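Students often ask why we bother encoding 3D structure as a string. The short answer is that it lets us treat folding as translation between two languages. Here is a chain of 306 residues written in the first language.
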Amino acid sequence: MNRKIIIAGGNGFLGRALTRHFTSQGDAVVVISRKPVPTSSGITWESWDGKTFGSWAKSLENANALINLAGKNVDCRYTEKNKKGILDSRLNSTRVLGDAVVACANPPKVWLNSSSATIYVDSRDKLMTEQNGDIGDDFSMTVCKKWEAMFNSFPTPQTRKIALRTSIVLGWDGAALPALRNLVKVGLGGHQGDGLQYCSWIHIDDFCRVVEWLIANANATGAYNVTAPKPLANKDFMKELRESLGVTFGLASPAWLLELGAIVIRTETELVLKSRNVYPKRLLDDGFIFLHEDLSHALTALNAAR
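And here it is in the second language, the structure alphabet:
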């Protein structure tokens, strides 16, 4: 297709997947990263610190799309230091990219900025859509609100802007699925907590297809829930995962045990206990078709591709 795609913070799981997706179509990809790696065919690397305007900004000129994935990993203990790092890394990268877009003579046609499906409150009985989703005030939701506010603060009349409220992305190169698989393999793949909290998810291929579709859809602006249309209760999610791996039994992990384990492995139980009951209404209304609506189908496809 010979488009120019910029991926900021593109050295992680999602960035690598998007790079493969776009280069396989003949697009030129520029990855802006703290840790550049040797150049591969169709990929150019630019170095930045995620907060300072620099020579990397020139790469945004005449780009078809800018995709910002930058931000500190949330898989950590929410100490004051880590909370500051999580928030600052998202606001600083978005701010400096906004400055770069505004400074362009020929800015990117569309700017897609990461957000998160965790912007919505814990819900077990209401599907959270873009229009009627309830947004609260805890740490994670406040980070998302400030992140989107920074993104929306830039006037970009020549650049469409889309906030990606992304759920857990399933892929064997990611963080979530391999960790859950390891639990299943050692017999600990039962439900977490009471198992009734919902898990919103999306197959990595559908994530890439959503990004591609939003870039191509000239009418797409604003916030989109990037998640499959069938969230599952945790107990059902873990059952599907066990079956896909050929494991018939898994011990459950009560909330108190998860709290102890989270301290040991330096993470937070919110990542598995919060009920993310999120629905991609805007994508479906706009005509996007998922390849993997059902978790069983998604897991079968992922296992076949390993």
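Translate back mentally: The longest strand covers residues 110-116. Keep this in mind for the problem set.
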